[in-house]
Amino acid sequence: MTAELFTVAGCAALLGLGLAWPRGFKAFAREGAWWFAAVLVAGGVVVSEEAVWVACVGVAGLWLFRKASLLRASVAALLVLLSGGVHSERGGVVAAGLALAAAGVVFLGRAHPPARNLEAARWLIQCGVAPATALAFLAARERRWPFLALTFLAALALMLVLARGNQSLELQARVALVLLCLRWLSQQRALDADAEEVSAMSFRPLPPPSASAGPLTFDERPPDGSEHLFRE
Amino acid sequence: MPRIEKLTTSAAADGVPLLQSISIAVEPGEVHGVIGPSGSGKTLLARALSGLVTLAAGGLTSSDERAVRVAVVPADGPPCALNVRELATLTGGQQEALPVPLRRMSLALLQRGVRQRAMANLLASSSPGLLVVDDPEFASVEEVRAWRETLSVSEVRAVPVLLLSRSEVPLAALCSTMHVLFDGRVIASGRTSALVPGAEVLARKRYA
Question: Which helix (H) or strand (E) is B189 found in, with range?
Fold first, then answer.
């Protein structure tokens, strides 16, 4: 069984590499991974129901890895739930809960690195948006995070109920729960700090060159002493 | 006319600044291209122009010594979740210029080239002092033609534009002047026809 799975995965990886790698790493990441996933699932159907389930978990993980979002987390959880139903009804539900919880942790973790939010504020201000408007816009965006976190907490709680009796799954659920709570708390702290900093922002144009630099002509020799290669 | 003058970023870990003494002047209505290999500093230049990187010297000024606002179209989409309508509302851009189905879509969901052109269109109509497009999508002949159309829209034509890319032939099709960036320095500047004549001939054939 394991050997068969490895064979299928190997074939899928080779096909993905062969089709997309020559066009560069980005093309491989974009398309090769999908070929890999498609062949993995198709191969799984041929090998056994269990292999389908494993492949679906892999595909869901791959999809989330490329870009975590609530929609993707939900679809991935549904995919795992459906494929898990083929394998074992209760196992499928628990696996779906785990996938959703993991997606939640990933999603919240990626959604708001504090530096990124400040960068967004600076970018909006440079694009001509008033600082107060940029702040209000970003704050409105962030208000939804607590609701999302609550959704994931609810999913985890459901999973805990369903995983009763299975020590390994219960342990995983508890760890995920603690991680999610910690992430949520740090998120709130980061948001407060961001709000203060963005409030103090204003449009800061790049400084003009110092007067001592003197007027610049474009016939000037580059600073490394080399000649301009081409002139009009 | 915005002039980037002797722009130098603060020193990196090895003590050498990543961008050194970059000088470029773009007239309103002109499209300039900055061409350079990966790692030459194109994206860093875009970030420095939008104030996201600390400068050690030099900067940006206009001919009348007024501050210049730089609108940057990032290579990988806006740094926050936005749809077309939101961006238009925030920046005062003219969303009427864009197709109706596009207006309610999240920018992140749009195809890269379409997203960049929509952003360029909207940001240009907020009348920035300089519009910078980092790594415009030139994957096909149609994409380059679509860029040409975008750059000919009146709102975009009214602002100075700087395109930063690795691909000289598409840039030659779009830019009147080119600057070659290598290792964080502009090593050559000039009219496209003088700087990369071969690329210009190819561009004329390919994107006619």
Answer: strand B185-191
- Determine the Cα–Cα distance for residues A228 and A219; give it in Å rounded to an integer: 8
Place of tokens 């002797």: B6
CATH architecture, domain defined by B2-206 = 3-Layer(aba) Sandwich (3.40)
Q: Which of A124, A206, A213 sits opposite B90 (nearest CB)?
A: A124
SS3 A11: helix
Identify which of B21, B69, B128 has the shortest CB distance to residue A223: B21
Q: Give Cβ neighbours of residue A73 (< 8 Å, ≥ 6 apart).
A: A64, A99, A100, A103, A104, A107
| Residue B99 vs residue B80, higher pLDDT | B80
**Complex ipTM:** 0.84
Record the pTM: 0.60
Residue pairs spanning A and B at CB distance below 8 A: 121
Helices (H), chain B: 42-49, 84-91, 100-103, 112-124, 141-152, 154-157, 168-174, 192-195, 197-206
**Average pLDDT for A207-226:** 42
Instruction: Give the integer Cα–Cα distance in Å for B53 and A134.
Output: 20
CB contacts of B81 in chain A (<8 Å) are: 141
> What's the pLDDT score for residue A174?
64
Domain edges within chain B: 2-206
* Coil, helix or strand at residue B45: helix
Q: What pLDDT band is residue B25 in, cutting at 50, 70 and 90?
A: confident
CB B28 within 8 A of CB B160: yes
User: Both tokens of residue A85?
Assistant: 């139903």
The mean pLDDT value of chain A amounts to: 57
pLDDT above 90 for A126 = no
Residue in chain B lying closest to A117 (CA): B80
**Do the strands B185-191 and B177-182 form a parallel or antiparallel pair, or are they unpaired?**
antiparallel
Q: Cβ of B68 and A203 within 8 Å?
A: no
pLDDT of residue A176: 60
Query: Is A147 within 8 Å of chain B by CB?
Result: no
Q: What is the pLDDT of residue B171?
A: 92
Q: Using alpha carbons only, what angle is made at residue A40 by residues A111 and A33, rounded to the nearest 5 degrees?
A: 45
Q: How many CA atoms lie within 13 A of A26 on its CB side?
A: 2
Number of H helices, E strands in chain A: 10, 0
Question: Residue A103 corresponds to which amino acid?
Answer: A
- Asked if A206 contacts B59 with a C-beta cutoff of 8 angstroms, the reply is yes
**Mean pLDDT, to the nearest integer, of B46-59?**
82
Amino acid making up residue A111? A
Q: What tens digit of pLDDT does each residue of A51-100 get?
A: 666 666 666 665 555 555 555 555 655 555 555 544 555 555 555 555 55
